[in-house]
Design goal:
Blueprint: H1 4-16, H2 25-38, H3 50-58, H4 67-85
């Protein structure tokens, strides 16, 4: 049984290109990325780019935060900004 993420990807590919031959893989890939974003997923590198790590260090949320809240905020902040620093 496919996972929900696999279902999202499969549906995106199926909906992107109905042709039998000469499939447009670029169109399919764009459809997959769009479907993932709509489902609140983002494709990011396994390791954060150096520029993002430096930026995140300078933008650590201030104030008293529970460790879980700090980690959640940092994760969200880094994922939302990875494209700016992935070079």
């Amino acid at each position: 049984m496919p996972s929900p993420l696999e279902d999202i990807i499969a549906k995106a590919i199926k909906d992107a290109d109905k042709s039998i031959f000469n499939e447009d893989y670029g169109k399919q890939a764009k459809s997959v990325v769009a479907a993932l974003r709509k489902a609140r997923y983002e494709v990011v590198p396994v390791r954060p780019p150096d520029g993002l790590v430096e930026w995140a260090k300078e933008n650590i949320p201030f104030g008293r935060l529970r460790p879980a809240d700090l980690i959640s905020q940092m994760y969200t902040m880094m994922v939302e900004n990875v494209k700016k620093y992935d070079r």
